[in-house]
Amino acid sequence: MMPVVSAGGRAWSLLAVLPGKQAKFRKRHGGTRETPSTFLPPTAYCVYREKAGVDTDIFYHWGEKLVEETSLLRKRHRNIILALDGYGAHCSYKVLKLFKDNNIVVVGLPAHTSHRTQPPDFSVFSPYKTAFRNELNKRTIFVKDETKNDVYTICELLTNAFN
Asked: Per the database record, which ranges form the DDE-1 domain (predicted)?
């Protein structure tokens, strides 16, 4: 999960990278089909990947979504600033050019320092992790069956914490 938050507190499209080559469906009692992304916020950009994590293509496509979502903001204020850690997928020429061409100023934080130099780690991600842990604890305590925490459940818990 990669949540994105503005300094004003607005949440932009979150990026969710889920395990697997493609979405897996499950059928519910009424015959409806669900994918894990069913349980994510409606604006989430959800992709599937065998290896965990974000690669350059995934980050680029998410960047296109961010460019689209922030078009009005950039028209009013000309530039916006995007603070990123030094992760390789964030620093590709293709991604940086996309942001530059769309008046998104990228500020790269030194590697292994974002936990100290990135204010959202304290103001957003720490409370988000706490809210997720609380959701997980509630599920562990109150669910009486032997249901395991699968990708569907985790997506639902992450969304509950996000909201």
From this structure: 5-149
Of 74, 117, 132, the closest CA to residue 98 belongs to: 74
Per-residue tokens: 102: 């769309």
% of the chain at pLDDT higher than 90: 7
Token pair, residue 158, equals 């992450």
Phi, psi of 55 (to 5 degrees): -110, 180
Longest dimension (CA), the chain: 53
Backbone phi and psi for residue 107, each to the nearest 5 degrees, phi listed first: -110, 115
Q: pLDDT tens digit string along 109-157?
A: 776 676 676 666 666 677 778 888 999 888 888 877 667 778 888 888 8
Burial category of 15 from C-beta neighbours within 10 Å (exposed 0-12, middle 13-18, buried 19 and up): buried
pLDDT at 115: 65
The model's pTM: 0.72
- Asked if residues 74 and 81 have their Cβ atoms less than 8 Å apart, the reply is no
